[in-house]
Amino acid sequence: MRKPILFLAAMMALSANAAQGNAPLSGQYYKLFAPMTFYHSVASDQLSIASDDADEVSRAIDQALMHVYLNRPDLVEVTESEQEEAGELRQDIIEQPIVQEVTIEEQADEMPEAPQAEQVEVVVEKPKFWTRKGDGYLQFMQNYVSGNWYKGGESNYSAVASLTLEANYDNKSKWKWDNKLEMKLGFQTSRSDEVHKFKANEDLFRYTGKVGLQAAAKWYYTLQALAYTQFSRGFKSNDIRTYSDFLSPLNVSVGLGMDYKVEWLDKKITGTINLSPLAMNYRYVDRSQFRKANDITNTDFDWFPGRYGIDADKHHLLDFGSQVTAALEWKINDVVTWKTRFYGFTSYHRAELEWENTFALRVSKYISANLFLFPRFDDSNKWDDDLGYWQFKEYSSLGFSYNF
Known about the structure:
alpha+beta
């Protein structure tokens, strides 16, 4: 720590002397900044009795170095002889003062103007938590059979219209709320039916809603509600009686469980699968003639197969059990798409299963053909000698379709 202090003191003294004599800066000061060296001239000048013609700066430097030699000889690294063996010093640096050349300009160049920042319009878009989509189609089918056709048969015309609307909420964090409304109505005519000019062959009004809280990557704790009925009355050929109607029946089911988001085969198969171990199924029938007769000898009991399990003195049936639903869409290729819906409920006393399948063949942007297959199981209906508790519906059609 003493070496820096000594040099600082020497530099302050030398600066004062130089300021008094207006001495210019020169190479004389190199001895203070070079590695500590024992110079022969310093010792000889200090010990000489002859008059010294050196200037005050040189004497001050020699005095400072002599002070170090006497008090801190351990700081000396080399001698002047060893230094000369390494090479000669440049005398021009020692003898000639270092003078900095300064050029004074009469007028400095003007500072360049800073570029003006262009105004940028910042648009902050509100996150889109809602997504809406839909699709619909209007399709027809015609079948002509001449009266003398060797296999027999009957000419008929049919049409079916469908509209599906979806509004889904997803806050990209934890919550989602899916809403789906399906409406489908179709009519057909047949020459053999002398009672009805046309009757419904497809009739559906269904709402599906799910509120989910994310539990894992693709799993959600979900409360699901499902409600469906029909628009118009249902008839059979050459029969004046009504077999179903609006709110007869009305089915409402609520299930609490887990929902799984399906993304299979590189997202070619998408949709959801819902498992509800706790579920409630509510069935309401408005028309009294659709309810179960208390007296099994009643003639109405024989002709009407769909009593929906409700007693004659009641309008509703409430069951508790378990439920599973699935709604999937598989884009097999750019032309063919398979949409399937599965619904299953059991109260452990009765069971109800539905499996809807729609194969859509896109002919062009607005033309498509559909094949619809719908097996159904419901053991609350009357037993059929051929199919038991199973029911089946199928149709194919061609017409207009549109997605939005």
